[in-house]
Amino acid sequence: MTDPLERTLVRSLAERVGGPVDTADLAASALRRGRSQRRRRQALAGFGAAVVVAAAGMTVLDPLSGGRVAGVPPQAGAVPVPGVPSSPPAGWRAPTPPVAVGVPGAAQTPDLVGADPGVLHFSVDGLTIGAERVTWAVESGSERVGVTVGGRYTEIALARDVGRLDLLVQGQDVDPTAAWSEPETSAATVGGLPATLYVQRSDQAEAFHLRWKPAPGVWAQVYGHGGWGRSAEAVSIAARVRLDTAARCAAPVRLPVWTHPDTPLGCRVTMAGTDQPDAEGRLTRLVEVVLTVGRRHGRVEVGVRRRSVDGTAAGERLGGRPAYRTTTARGEHRLVVPDFDGLRIELTASAGYAVPQVARVAAGLRLDGDPEEPATWPIWPSTGRRPSPTGQVD
User: Which residue spans traverse the membrane (predicted)?
Assistant: First the structure.
């Protein structure tokens, strides 16, 4: 049985526990999901070039997955490694950033790197193979794709300002209490271009980042942590970075017209490599999506997450849905809709946005596209267009 069909059946059955099951409805739902899966495969074909390698009859080991043959998922039932989640029966299948058809990469438009929150101007061949989790983001002047494979994290990023890459390294989730060594530097080469490798070690782990300039005015970085000896993989990972393609960053929602005068500032998507239950037991691979818009004196983050229950009583209703307001530790207003047609919506506003304005944003939101299929999400920032089943823009 195919993975999409399994997911559809499980969801449909879970929603009907305690009552009769309409088999005709199940079959129709499964057919829709199968078509969606085919659309996703077509739209994402350009991002995973490992298929091309396999077609050429070459055997390539994937350094991000412990030396496994590229394109071959880990075998279910393999001997578990402490601290590393066991592979699901169908293997890890994290969605990948959808291809931005017709959009030039960083090689053609280096001045746009980090400037358009809806576009990543690069791709990495085979990066998400076997990934337990994948994140892609355009925020604060940088573009990045990060994956967790075998409990180890790897991130590839582009920026026009090398200081933006410094901030990414400083913000990584490593043990702050460990005694880290001073960075050891060594010269390297990526595609004939000079690069510098930085390695730091503690008693328990190793962290590294490799940095080079793949195009005029553009800096690139490969970062990794977890385990020992991973710095030796840095150059081979960097060699897989492509600047001739682009990918989209978006969300399965449309923002109301009210937000359009505001400046789009950021986009971040995190997807899991296997189905995980939400608060109602429905299976999903969506972890979170965050869109950020702002103006000179403030910003609003629109968070879309899997449905969860936190025990907070809903004190109001927005668009007929229960909602409540709260304040973050930094004093920001937050409006939460725990169940927005099966998803959790959180809007967090800094100074410059009043609570009624945020409430109007929440009331004007609407879902658009399949939350499980990033290739079906609308173009963002909004242009009134949306991707077609083949990834072209209608």
Answer: 43-61
